[in-house]
Each structure stands twice: as structure tokens, then as C-alpha cells.
């Protein structure tokens, strides 16, 4: 039978750090991993995870049957505190995996188009310069896909939903500054406390870094952070631009917060073969790369560029439909209410509206 793997990293700021214990355990202490269809326990509660490197842990289990989805919980104990993270493992079929666009498939398609491949001893690139050419084309093609031009009648470029993931950050007591992910390219919304955190302030509002810095100067006491500011770190020409977040108040204990951010472009490789969006948007990514290959051929007809434009419209339409929310939430004016007042806490619980004797 096939196997599934749960992986989890532990970072303090953006630094991989070992935890005291790492195991699979749900909040009720019933299971480590369970089947979604029957709730049957697949991995027992309290099962230890394997440390694969500093701050990196994983556990692999054998599926009892094909075509199943699972729910698992990772439990980390760090600095005397317990943190749990839910993991949803959707159904994965071998056909879906084989259909994904990969670095290898892109190399082969571009090499065939440019006539770079030979079949003497299997499909191989004949020179090192040709490999560089193909990598340059793939990088340009991925940029063409991930940062598309506005498609009429839209006046702004589409932003892909899969390049705006939600991730977590662990705040430790009395520490105000934390590194953001290396691929960070902008935040969307604020920071929200993890479920189970005993705090009244949710979310943490993002304001200017200067405002947060000044507040830390004026009030260096600890408490529950309510404001955050993001700033670039000092430039390092070996790693590129990196960002960090500054919180006020300084946390009085450990907290886990979640936030959504925009992912910056990352080149794929043999070690990291899957481009984001590859399964759902594989044809578009392939045609974007082949369209770039066309630009290197004199008097090319432009068939792949035309196909790319066609597939791009379809990909944007599909992504927009998946990312479109059913509601934007409760429309409440809180502009004149202090952030730490009881009125805000009450407002965040929502209001009841009665119409014809029915409460909504």
C-alpha cells in the first residue's frame, strides 16, 4: 500500500530550532492520525515523530486503503509550553501525481522544442551551455506565469491564490522581533492568535514599523501583543532582501499566531521539482515556458505564445472562482473604538439581528 508523510518544522523567529518533544496527538488525546471517512485511528495518540534535521520532524504511515483522506495533529513541547498544529491530508491519487508539471518535464519539453536533446543513450542534454539556456527559459517562463499582465477587462494583474499561503509564527516571552520567511513578499491582513490561545485581542493589527518602534520606546512592559510592524532587514548581498516583524507589546508569554503572506518567486530545480500551482495550472505553466523558448528562435510563428494567452485566461478564471469568498464578514464601524476596549471585544463576537421575530 501507499504511504503518507506528515512533516512539520519548528522555528523561533525564522531559525530552525529543536523542540523538547515532537509527537502526533490530537487535543482530545484520542488519535495521532485518523481517517476522515470513519474516524478510525490510523496512527495512535502519542506516537513519536522522527527528527530529520534541526527543527524538522516527520512521521510516515502506511495507508489502510487507497483514496482516503486523513486528519492528524502534531504536538510540540518547547520551553515548557505545548503547541498543536492540525494537518489535513487530502486524497492523493497516483494519476494526480503523475499529471503534475515538474522541472524534469519542463526541461524535456523545452529541450525537444529547441532541438537540444539526443537519443543516443536516452534523452540527455548534450552540452552544459544548453542546460543553462533551458534553466534561463524556465525561470523566465515561470515569471511570465506568476506575474502575469492585466487581462482585459481587468485593470490590474491577477494574484494567484496559491501564492498567498497561511503560515504560523511562534512568539516567545519578552522577544519583540522575528524573521519572516525567506520567500516573504508582502502580508495580507493581520496576525491572528491560534485557536486555544487565551487572549482577548484578535487579530494583531499591522501598522507602520515606526509606530510600533515608538510604542516600544514609550512602553517597554510586557503583555499581549496588539500591534505589528514589518520592515526590511539590513541588506545582505549573499541572500538578498529579507524582512522581519516587530510586535508591541512585548509578549508576556509564548504565543502562536497565524498570518497570510504573498510568496516571492523561487526557481525550481531537481531537488525542488514542483512549481506552485503545477497540478491545476500545468498546461499554462508549460505554455508560458515554451512561449519564452519561442523568443529565442528567429522568425518563430508564436503558436505557444497564443496558446499561453488562451490557457492563462482559463487559469485566472479558475483561480478567481476558487478564491472568491461567500461573504466578507460583518460590516461594523469600529473606527472610534480603542483597540483594547471592551467594546471591540464585544464587537468581534458579532451582533444578532431580528427580522419578523427571527434572529440572524
Task: Give an overview in words.
A hairpin with a 2-residue loop joins strand 23 (354-355) and strand 24. With 360 residues, the protein is of the alpha+beta class. The longest helix has 21 residues, at 303-323. The protein contains seven helices and 24 strands. It folds into three domains: 3-94, Immunoglobulin-like; 100-147 and 266-322, no CATH class; 161-263, no CATH class. The chain has helices at 94-99, 103-114, 128-146, 209-218, 282-294, 303-323, 342-347, and strands spanning 3-9, 11-12, 15-16, 21-24, 31-35, 41-44, 47-48, 50-53, 56-62, 70-78, 81-89, 117-118, 124-125, 166-171, 177-179, 184-193, 205-207, 222-223, 227-232, 243-248, 250-251, 255-263, 354-355, 358-359. Helix 2 packs across helix 3 (128-146) and helix 5 (282-294) packs antiparallel against helix 6. Helix content is 24%, strand content 31%. The protein is globular and about 70 Å long. Strands 4, 5, 6, 7, 10 and 11 form a six-stranded antiparallel β-sheet that branches.
Amino acid at each position: 500500500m501507499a504511504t503518507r508523510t506528515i512533516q512539520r518544522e519548528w522555528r523561533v523567529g525564522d531559525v530552525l530550532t529543536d523542540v523538547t518533544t515532537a509527537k502526533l496527538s490530537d487535543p482530545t488525546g484520542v488519535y495521532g492520525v485518523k481517517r476522515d471517512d470513519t474516524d478510525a485511528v490510523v496512527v495512535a495518540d502519542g506516537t513519536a515523530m522522527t527528527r530529520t534535521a534541526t527543527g524538522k520532524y516527520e512521521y510516515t504511515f502506511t495507508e489502510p486503503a487507497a483514496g482516503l483522506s486523513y486528519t492528524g495533529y502534531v504536538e510540540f513541547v518547547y520551553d515548557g509550553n505545548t503547541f498543536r498544529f492540525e494537518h489535513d491530508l487530502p486524497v492523493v491519487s497516483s494519476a494526480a501525481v503523475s499529471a503534475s508539471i515538474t522541472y524534469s518535464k519542463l526541461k524535456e519539453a523545452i529541450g525537444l522544442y529547441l532541438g537540444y536533446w539526443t537519443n543516443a543513450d536516452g534523452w540527455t542534454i548534450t552540452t552544459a551551455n544548453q542546460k543553462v539556456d533551458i534553466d534561463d527559459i524556465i525561470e523566465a517562463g515561470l515569471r511570465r506565469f506568476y506575474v502575469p499582465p492585466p487581462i482585459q477587462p481587468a485593470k490590474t494583474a491577477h494574484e494567484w491564490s496559491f501564492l498567498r499561503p497561511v503560515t504560523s509564527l511562534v512568539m516567545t516571552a519578552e522577544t519583540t522581533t522575528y524573521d519572516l520567511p525567506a520567500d516573504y513578499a508582502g502580508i495580507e491582513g493581520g496576525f491572528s492568535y491560534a485557536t486555544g490561545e487565551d487572549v482577548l485581542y484578535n487579530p494583531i493589527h499591522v501598522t507602520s514599523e515606526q509606530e510600533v518602534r515608538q510604542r516600544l520606546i514609550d512602553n517597554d512592559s510586557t503583555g499581549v501583543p496588539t500591534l505589528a510592524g514589518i520592515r526590511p532587514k539590513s541588506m545582505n548581498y549573499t541572500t538578498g532582501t529579507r524582512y522581519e516583524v516587530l510586535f508591541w507589546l512585548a509578549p508576556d508569554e509564548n504565543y502562536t499566531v497565524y498570518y497570510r503572506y504573498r510568496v516571492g518567486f523561487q526557481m525550481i530545480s531537481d531537488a525542488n521539482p514542483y512549481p506552485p500551482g503545477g497540478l491545476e495550472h500545468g498546461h499554462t505553466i508549460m505554455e508560458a515556458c515554451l512561449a519564452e523558448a519561442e523568443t529565442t528562435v528567429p522568425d518563430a510563428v508564436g503558436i505557444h505564445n497564443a496558446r499561453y494567452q488562451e490557457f492563462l485566461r482559463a487559469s485566472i478564471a479558475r483561480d478567481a472562482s476558487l478564491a472568491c469568498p461567500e461573504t466578507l464578514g460583518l460590516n461594523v464601524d469600529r473606527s472610534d473604538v480603542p483597540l483594547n476596549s471592551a467594546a471591540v471585544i464585544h464587537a468581534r463576537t458579532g451582533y444578532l439581528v431580528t427580522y419578523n421575530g427571527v434572529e440572524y
